[in-house]
Amino acid sequence: MSTNESPSTVDPTLDSEAVGAALRNTVVDPLRALSFWTAVLLPLAYLPLVANGLGNGEMSVLISLVAVNAAALVIGHGHER
User: Fold this and answer.
1) What span, in angstroms and rounded, lies between the C-alpha atoms of 63 and 61?
2) How far apart are CA 32 and CA 71, in angstroms?
3) C-alpha to C-alpha distance for 72 and 31, rounded to whole angstroms
4) What pTM, to 2 d.p., does this model score?
5) What percent of the chain has pLDDT over 70?
6) What are the pLDDT digits (tens) for 48-77?
7) Distance between CA atoms of 62 and 67, rounded to whole angstroms?
8) Nearest one of 46, 41, 37 to 66, comparing CA atoms
9) What is the average per-residue pLDDT within 19-27?
10) Residue 43 and residue 70: Cα distance in Å, rounded?
11) Bigger pLDDT: 20 or 3?
12) Any residues with CB less than 8 A from the CB of 65 and at least 6 apart, and which?
C-alpha cells in the first residue's frame, strides 16, 4: 500500500500559498528593494542638471527623472517592513 496521496485529495490552497511565497521571494521582494534604493539614490542625478542649468533637452530629462523617482517611491515603499 502506498502512502502517497492521490492528486484529488491534495489541498490546492497549500500549492497556491507556496507559489505565492516563492513568487514574493524571487520577484516582488527584490523589485521592491531595487525600487527603494533607486528612489533613495536617483535624486543625486538631479544635481548636475540643476547645477549646470536647464537647457531645452535637460528639462525633459529632469521631468523623466522625477517621474521615475515617483514610481520608485511608490513601488519601493514597503521595503523591509
Assistant:
1) 5
2) 11
3) 10
4) 0.66
5) 81
6) 888 888 887 888 888 999 999 999 999 998
7) 9
8) 46
9) 76
10) 11
11) 20
12) 42, 45, 46, 49
Cell numbers linked to 72: 520608485
SS3 state at 80: coil
Q: Which three cell numbers stand for residue 36?
A: 527603494
- State the amino acid at position 38 in one-letter form: T
Residue reference for cell 500549492: 15
How large is the angle between the packed helices 56-75 and 29-41, nearest 10 degrees? Answer: 140
Amino acid in position 30: P
Average pLDDT over residues 40-49: 89
